[in-house]
Design brief:
The chain is of the alpha+beta class. Helices cover about 20% and strands about 40% of the residues. It is built from four helices and nine strands. The strands form two sheets. The protein has a seven-stranded antiparallel β-sheet, with helices on both faces. The chain has a two-stranded antiparallel ribbon with strand order 1-2. Strand 6 and strand 7 form a beta hairpin. The longest helix has 14 residues, at about 5-20.
Length: about 210
């Protein structure tokens, strides 16, 4: 998998911070029983998200698996990049001749770190609930479902609101084995973007 595979969606995700963090910027200048997976969310699904949500849950509760990656390994090396966005703000006093006015200027910074791990493929016929990241993405525990978007036959985004108004968004590509999903997690409160950036041969040192 090329490192740039999800670059477009990563760039688009920056808009999410503008929506999820606008309030802060202004103030500062599923259960498993046998082979059956129950619906992990018991709240209200927005009407405009019902079709996408149903399609996503049909995949999650089913035992079919995506065909990617298809290099013939039972285990793969997965690299995730965690990008943390931060702001540096400074206030300057501007002399406007008649009055002086304090203006605050902010600059966006970011830092990145990579996390590597070996991932075992989820076998066809197995439930997907053993993937804790995927279960978390669909559980909505203590969260409010805002929107589920289906971008194509295989690509979904599910967005949740926290009680403080911040957002969590998970992107899922069902063409990949469920062990690699969600491939992107955005947290507007932590100001982090966790993205799956590479899949390859298993790491020998792990």
């Amino acid at each position: 998998m090329r490192t740039s595979l999800f670059h477009g969606l990563l760039c688009a995700s920056l808009v999410f911070f503008a929506a999820g963090c606008g309030k802060d910027n202004k103030s500062s200048g599923g259960g498993v029983s046998g082979n059956v997976v129950t619906n992990p969310y018991t709240g209200t699904v927005p009407a405009d998200s019902l079709t996408a949500y149903t399609n996503l849950m049909t995949w999650y509760k089913g035992t079919t698996e995506g065909s990617l990656p298809n290099d013939g390994f039972a285990h793969y090396g997965e690299t995730r990049t965690i990008t943390t966005l931060s702001q540096e703000c400074s206030t300057k006093t501007i002399d406007l001749w008649i009055i002086e006015k304090d203006l605050t200027f902010c600059k966006e910074n970011s830092s990145e770190n990579e996390v590597e791990r070996n991932v075992a493929l989820t076998a066809v016929g197995s439930v997907k609930a053993s993937n804790s990241k995927l279960t978390q993405a669909l559980s909505g525990s203590g969260l409010t479902l805002i929107k589920v978007t289906q971008y194509s036959a295989n690509v979904f985004q599910i967005e949740w609101a926290k009680s403080n108004g911040h957002r969590l968004a998970y992107s899922i590509d069902t063409s990949f084995n469920s062990a690699f999903n969600p491939y992107q997690i955005i947290d507007s409160e932590a100001r982090t973007i966790e993205s799956l950036t590479d899949i390859g041969s298993p790491f020998l040192n792990l």
